[in-house]
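Friendly challenge for the regulars: who can give me the structure tokens for this chain first? No prize, just bragging rights.
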Amino acid sequence: MMGIRTDIAVEFAADRVNRKREVAVHKYDVEGIEVTNVEILSEQAANEIGKPMGKYVTLETKRNVNIFDLPMLTELLIAEIRGLIGRIDGDVLVVGIGNKTVTPDALGPKAAEGVMATRHLPKKLIDRLGLEGLRTVSVLSPGVSGQTGMDAKEILEGAIGRLKPDVMIIVDALAAREVSRLGRTVQLSNTGLTPGSGVGNSRTELSEKTLGVKCVTVGVPTVVDASTLCYDLTGEARHEHDPLIVTPRDIDRMIEKSGQVLAYSLNLAIHPDVDPEALRFCV
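First reply, four minutes later:
Bragging rights claimed.
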């Protein structure tokens, strides 16, 4: 739809497809957090929506409630991440997408900083710490092409070729259609992502199709595209000026808090065979 840009499944699915057989939507509430499962079931629906087939899970709170202040969020994130990962026996690669010097885009690198890398740890040390069952985890923040001269996909192809992980978990900042979702929404999916697509600056798709490894994504909306906001307010898209992005004034706190919560949840979700108390001591 002209003037509409969003990465959030519950927004684009509601706008573009209304066929229950092609898009399945299931909602329920857990202690003040609304969980919405959107599953795109056909190529036709995917083409109409402009998003890949697969499962999208959105966790959100009511207006003026910061989801990252709710203890239940961690439990839900752990369960949803494990569900999307599925049964794996091998290594995990966690990737923080974004530019750490631009606050609204710094979520991925911030979360990656808090994820525990274990690939370098000797088995003797793991056993001595009482962490038998610890998965092999590598962590990477590839930066952006303006910093590295390379597309994230090029960097990830090299890492995947060397590490051969069973699953890659990608964390990235997202764009929403509604300002009210900023700071109160988390989205997970098994479809991969296209960095920058929500603000009209699309890069190369990062998915199982393009990288050959199962991809699970975790994202938080930190911005709204101004032309999308204008369209919702006036019914007209405004493209005559340079692109503008709207972000909350407390974005620094949002990135700090959401990055910490996501990192903590990922650490606990990735290692289901390790005593959570022992893991908390390490992270």
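The radius of gyration is 19 Å. The longest helix spans residues 251-270. Your move, everyone else.
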